Amino acid sequence: MPEGHTIHRLAQDHLARFAGRVVAVRSPQGRFADSAARLDGRVLDTAEAHGKHLFLGFGADWIHIHLGLFGKYALGDTPAPPPTDTVRLRLLDDVSYSDLRGPTTCALITDDEKQAIHDRLGPDPLRPADAPDNDPERAWRRISRSRTTVAALLMDQKVVAGVGNVYRAEVLFRHGIDPYTPGKDLAEAHWKAIWADLVELMHEGVRLNRIDTVRPEHTPEAMGRPPRVDDHGGEVYVYRRAAQPCHLCGTEIRTADLASRNLFWCPTCQHPAPKP
Predict the structure, then answer these.
(1) Is position 2 annotated as part of the catalytic site?
(2) CATH at 223
(3) Is residue 74 helix, strand or coil?
């Protein structure tokens, strides 16, 4: 499933290509046809993201998109290729097109329905720091009272929005925190450092359109090691490196199932967080 940086990048791409322009709205697949007809020929005013949710704004009407596990986007310049019957949503003007396939959600919603989605999501490291729905203290209040592991809490979109399996594993490694540490045992200083790191890492993810989490002194060039070869791209410390040696200490990276997702960590570099 795409992580939050991908969705924010999609919002930026739609703004750059379509904002302020009249667009044709189509649903070759047919599952969004009635809503597409309502929006066809209108101006796309804005696009924004919150966590893994994308919103395309047409006045008081919004297209709400959640890619889920199988959703994919293709954006490009016109002329657009002939649409296939798997395209749920196509936006098109005389310069650009975007095609959406296989999303979990593609629905026309109102302002109030959109606000209800924001209300149930946690703060997002990629949303503006002054946004009223983006106070990291709100996440801390939930984390500090919870017996749930910090690894599970970071993946709970009601606690922190947009963090997925890669950023979860990597930010815990970067701060030396055992992923099985209960939230209530995490010091507030640790949480503040994690949040600040997520803000920086995920903004870089938007900028580069990939996830890189290793510090400059741990890049392949700095360490004289081979670069990572993986379809996810980017340099990481532990994600999808099970049974490989840790870049820092040489200990074998471990993996385990946690809440139906693969967890990765270094048992030497990551320790239980000291109780506050």
Answers:
(1) yes
(2) 1.10.8.50
(3) strand
| Span of 37-46, 140-149, 223-232, 248-257 with lowest mean pLDDT | 223-232
Q: Give residue 38's domain range.
A: 4-120
Residue 103, pLDDT > 80, answer yes
Active-site residue among 17, 26, 52, 127? 52
Q: Look at residue 245 and tell me if it is in a domain.
A: yes
At residue 260, the pLDDT reads: 80
116 with 142, same domain? no
Distance (Å, whole) CA 229 – CA 210:
13
Domain check: are 22 and 90 in the same one? yes
From residue 71, give the alpha-carbon distance in Å to each of 31, 209, 219. Answer: 14, 17, 32
User: Both 225 and 261 in a single domain?
Assistant: yes
In a domain, 274, yes or no: no
The answer to whether residues 114 and 152 belong to one domain is no
* pTM (2 d.p.): 0.94
Q: Specify whether the CB–CB gap between 5 and 205 falls below 8 A.
A: yes
Catalytic residue among 3, 48, 170, 235: 3
Quick one: which H or E segment has residue 105?
strand 105-110
The average pLDDT across 4-29 equals: 97
Query: What digits encode the pLDDT tens for the residues 216-230?
Result: 999 999 999 999 887
Q: Is 261 among the residues known to form the active site?
A: yes
Please determine, for residue 144, whether its predicted confidence score (pLDDT) is greater than 90. yes
Instruction: Please say if 3 is a catalytic residue.
Output: yes
28 is catalytic: no
The pLDDT of residue 122: 97
Angle, CA of 57, 163 and 238, to the nearest 5°: 145
Residue 208 phi/psi, 5° resolution? -90, -15
Residue of 21, 228, 240, 261 with catalytic role = 261
What does the pLDDT read at residue 230? 78
Residues 2, 28, 125, 179: which is the catalytic one?
2
Residue 193 lies in a domain: yes
